[in-house]
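seq/struct pair 1
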Amino acid sequence: MADLTRFGISIDDRLLRRFDDLIAEKGSANRSEAIRDLIRGALIEDQWARGNDETVGTVTLVYDHHTRDLSDKLTEQQHSHHDAIVSALHVHLDAHHCLEVVVVRGKAREVKRLADELIGTKGVKHGKLVTTTTGKDLL
């Protein structure tokens, strides 16, 4: 690791016990790593809130492929945003339902707009944007 800085914090014993239980459940190596993860998460949220930074994410969609023209509409939307779509995975869940995971990349506000467009397509039963970062500015 690069230069490390040690610092102390004051925290209620009950809160610390709950945090220790949580990091044990999640398998974190130690408190320091868990706190670093929390800081990274806050930085990623801030990056998305600013809207201008290069970001990545996934748009997960569940829909009934028998819905008239829905598959074609989703495909057309993806083609019209080919510059922001890195990849797509299509899974047949059962005889009627499909799961589609679309990997997107671009400025946060543009990715959010594209995700809203896909999720808001008539016939999509459920959709969710999961946001993250390219990682280039994180330590």
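seq/struct pair 2
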Amino acid sequence: MHVSGSSRFSRSEQVVELDAEAFEAIVVDELDQLPDDMVDGLENIVFVVEDRPEDGSLDLLGLYDGWALTERDRYGFGEMPDRIVLYREPLLAISADEQELREEIHVTLVHEIAHFYGIDDARLHELGWA
């Protein structure tokens, strides 16, 4: 499996506290608010919320784990779905309130979905999404 890109940020103190269920509800709400042309092309992909990255750090906000559309050869023949992972504790740690959390989740979703479409970090930075 190819890991294409991730969103990183660093702050060490958690300000907003939400349990996993409330956090996931915000993620679903933010996904619903994304433009149709951004999400209509998503196929064989799942969105996952985890507390922290495997290394336990708070500096990774999200991760696209899969093969970008621009890198796929044959696809759709029984492969496991690609994953976009949002990390709850790091996103909470950089957010002063729920509105800021929603904004960070939105930006992280756009960033990771862009990796699905083959947009790299340099281009995302040019576009203001990295």
